[in-house]
């Protein structure tokens, strides 16, 4: 029981990582490069766990939404278009295009870091607005990294089914060959 309480209290303060990142990032833009970890982590964790565990348990913005936004949300179901695949794809492409263009224009590590700080600032503002007007985790329904994590899980499941299907087909082919050899032998 004590372990659960400690984990819960740690989670109550873990949202401050997001605030510290944003605050420090505007003064020390190189810190912005740390956002790469939070962008890659959901995909890596999903690839190994087969679930969106990063999103549910460790994402600083998700924790911020759970601890802070949950207290002020209107708790209204978000419109269906926000979680539609088409919207997720368009939003992902838009954000990644801005990220790539920003990084292409960056002439230093600090400028590259600032691109990430801006990206996290804008997406956090969107998460706050959407979380206030709808549900506190409405952002998570169309988060680009969560979307990629979901695609990773889906790809992993499909490749596992394909491998299983190939094994089954190979076994059937082997059985047919064995029967053919038995007929020839008799």
Outline the secondary-structure elements:
Blueprint: H1 2-14, H2 16-27, H3 35-49, H4 53-58, H5 60-67, H6 85-105, H7 109-133, H8 144-185
What does this protein structure show overall?
With 186 residues, this protein is mostly helical. The chain is built from eight helices and no strands. The chain has one domain (2-185). It has helices at residues 2-14, 16-27, 35-49, 53-58, 60-67, 85-105, 109-133, 144-185. Helix 1 (2-14) crosses helix 5, helix 3 (35-49) runs parallel beside helix 8 (144-185) and helix 6 runs antiparallel to helix 7 (109-133). The radius of gyration is 23 Å and the shape is elongated. The termini are far apart.
């Amino acid at each position: 029981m004590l372990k659960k309480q400690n984990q819960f209290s740690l989670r109550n303060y873990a949202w401050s990582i997001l605030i510290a990142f944003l605050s420090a990032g505007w003064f020390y833009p190189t810190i912005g490069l740390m956002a790469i970890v939070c962008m890659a982590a959901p995909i890596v964790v999903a690839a190994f766990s087969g679930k969106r565990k990063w999103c549910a348990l460790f994402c600083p913005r998700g924790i911020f939404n759970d601890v802070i936004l949950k207290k002020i949300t209107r708790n209204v179901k978000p419109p269906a278009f926000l979680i539609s695949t088409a919207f997720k794809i368009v939003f992902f492409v838009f954000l990644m295009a801005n990220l790539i263009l920003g990084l292409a224009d960056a002439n230093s590590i600090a400028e590259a870091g600032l691109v990430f700080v801006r990206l996290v600032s804008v997406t956090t503002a969107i998460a706050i607005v959407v979380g206030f007007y709808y549900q506190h985790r409405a952002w998570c329904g169309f988060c680009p990294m969560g979307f990629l994590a979901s695609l990773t899980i889906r790809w992993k499941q499909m490749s596992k089914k394909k491998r299983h299907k190939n094994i089954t087909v190979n076994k059937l082919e082997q059985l047919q060959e064995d029967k053919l050899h038995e007929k020839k032998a008799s």
